[in-house]
Amino acid sequence: MLEVHNLDAVPDEYTDDPGFESQLKTKYLGALAGSKRIYLNIDYVKAGAKSAKYHSHSLQEEFFLILRGRGNVRIQDRIVAVKQGDFFAKPGGMMIAHQFINDGDEVLEILDCGTKDKNDLVEYPDEDVLLVKEKGLAFKKTEPLKDWSSDPNK
């Protein structure tokens, strides 16, 4: 049965850092609403922090909308300034590396939505790492890495 939710009342289990004690908090709105083929999140990035490590996806298509704040998006080794109201899409099947950097003085809020592709591979070119998302395995060239994290603020 369809249920209507409110952004201000997202339960803690659909937020990865309810108290916003780290540099990045994400609300998983699509999961809460029961979405099966797409994800829809709001990422909250504190001043001086990054949204993710610089990465690209083999299959996943993504769309981003800046809801509040300003900062930069590093995309294909270019730095592009972004502010409230700016948006762009990253087509699936194209390895387009990207990362948001909040160099402003307020929280950067980003609507982040895209497809869920279980066979998606995530490449982290700065570290020469490939993540097999479904398996949670990270490889550097041909060797598995233990205790590797995609969190850019650790």
What are the SSEs and their pairings?
Elements (H helix, E strand, L loop, with lengths): L23 E5 H5 L4 E8 L10 E2 L4 E7 L1 E6 L2 E6 L3 E4 L7 E4 L6 E8 L5 E4 L4 E4 L4 E4 L2 E3 L9
Antiparallel strand pairs: 1-2, 2-9, 3-10, 4-7, 4-9, 5-6, 5-8, 10-11, 11-12, 12-13
Mass-distribution shape: globular
Give the strand tally: 13
What is the averaged pLDDT score?
92
Look at the helices and sheets and give the structural class: mainly beta
Oligomer: single chain
The order of strands across the largest sheet is 1-2-9-4-7
Number of helices: 1
Gyration radius over CA = 16 Å
Q: Helix proportion of residues, in percent?
A: under 10%
Low-confidence runs: none
Strand content: 35-45%
Distance between the termini: 40 Å
Order of helices and strands: EHEEEEEEEEEEEE
* Sheet with the most strands, sense and barrel status: 5 strands, antiparallel
Give a written overview of the molecule.
This protein has 154 residues and is mostly beta strands. The protein has one helix at 29-33, and strands at residues 24-28, 38-45, 56-57, 62-68, 70-75, 78-83, 87-90, 98-101, 108-115, 121-124, 129-132, 137-140, 143-145. Helices cover 3% and strands 42% of the residues. The strands form 3 sheets. It has a 5-stranded antiparallel sheet. The chain has a 5-stranded antiparallel sheet with strand order 3-10-11-12-13, with no helix packed on it. 18% of the residues are buried. The mean pLDDT is 92.
